[in-house]
C-alpha cells in the first residue's frame, strides 16, 4: 500500500508557542525569567526540548549539559500541562490527510516528540484516528534521522517502504528520508520557510491542498 508518513511538530501542527512556554517555565523556575521568544526562537523549538534549554542557557553565558539533563524532565512536565494551549493544526492538514486516505494511501506519523506526548497532543487535537501509526522519539532506541523509526512507522501503518514518502519541515526529515531511500516533501510554511529548499528535497509545497497530487507524483 502507498504510504505517506508525516512529521508532527512544524509539519502538521504549529507547536512552537507551547514548546517555548514550557522551556521558559524552566528558566523562570531558576529565576532567569523568559529567555526564549515564541516567534524568534520557533525554529529552535522544533529541534526539541534540549535544544531550547541549550539556547536559553547560552544566553545566560554558559551551557551545562548536566543542568540541561536536570531541567529536561521539568520541561516535559510543563509541556504536557499546556500541550494544546496555543498549538493549532496548519490550515488544510486534516483535509489533506483525509483526501490521501480516501485515495487509498495509508498514513502515519514519525516524530522526535516523545511518543506519549504525541499521543496526548493528537488526541486533544481530535486527529489521532487519521493515522495508522505513531512512532516517537522514544519508541525505539534511536530517533530520526536514523531511518529505523521511519521504517517502523511505515510497517505499522500497513504500508510498503518502497511505496512510501515522508512529509516534514527540517533537514532532519530530509536526512531521514535519504537514509531510508524514500522521497521527502518539505513544507514551506514552517519557521524555516522557503529556506527548506536548501536541503534539496524531492519536493516542497506551500499549502496542504497541494499534497495529495504531490504524493501521487512522488510515489509512482
From TrEMBL:
Catalytic reaction list: 2-phosphoglycolate + H2O = glycolate + phosphate
Top-level EC class: hydrolase
Protein name (database record): phosphoglycolate phosphatase
Pathway linked to the protein: Organic acid metabolism; glycolate biosynthesis; glycolate from 2-phosphoglycolate: step 1/1
Assigned protein family: Belongs to the HAD-like hydrolase superfamily. CbbY/CbbZ/Gph/YieH family.
E.C. no: 3.1.3.18
Keyword S-adenosyl-L-methionine: no
Domain of life: Bacteria
Keywords: Hydrolase
Gene Ontology terms for molecular function: hydrolase activity
Amino acid at each position: 500500500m502507498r504510504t505517506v508518513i508525516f512529521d508532527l511538530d512544524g509539519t502538521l501542527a504549529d507547536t512552537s508557542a507551547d514548546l517555548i512556554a514550557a522551556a521558559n517555565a524552566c528558566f523562570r523556575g531558576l529565576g532567569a525569567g523568559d529567555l526564549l521568544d515564541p516567534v524568534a526562537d520557533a525554529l529552535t523549538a522544533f529541534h526539541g526540548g534540549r535544544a531550547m534549554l541549550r539556547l536559553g542557557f547560552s544566553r545566560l553565558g554558559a551551557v551545562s549539559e548536566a543542568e540541561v539533563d536536570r531541567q529536561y524532565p521539568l520541561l516535559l512536565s510543563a509541556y504536557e500541562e499546556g500541550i494544546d494551549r496555543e498549538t493549532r493544526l496548519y490550515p488544510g492538514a486534516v483535509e489533506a490527510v483525509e483526501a490521501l486516505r480516501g485515495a487509498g494511501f495509508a498514513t502515519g506519523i514519525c516524530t522526535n516528540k516523545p511518543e506519549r506526548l504525541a499521543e496526548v497532543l493528537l488526541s486533544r487535537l481530535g486527529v489521532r484516528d487519521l493515522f495508522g501509526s505513531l512512532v516517537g522519539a522514544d519508541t525505539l532506541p534511536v530517533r530520526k534521522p536514523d531511518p529505523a523509526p521511519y521504517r517502523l512507522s511505515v510497517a505499522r501503518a500497513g504500508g510498503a517502504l518502497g511505496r512510501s514518502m515522508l512529509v516534514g519541515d527540517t533537514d532532519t526529515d530530509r536526512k531521514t528520508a535519504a537514509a531510508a531511500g524514500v522521497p521527502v516533501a518539505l513544507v514551506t510554511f514552517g519557521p524555516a520557510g522557503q529556506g527548506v529548499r536548501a536541503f534539496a528535497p524531492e519536493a516542497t509545497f506551500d499549502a496542504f491542498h497541494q499534497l495529495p497530487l504531490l504524493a501521487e507524483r512522488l510515489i509512482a
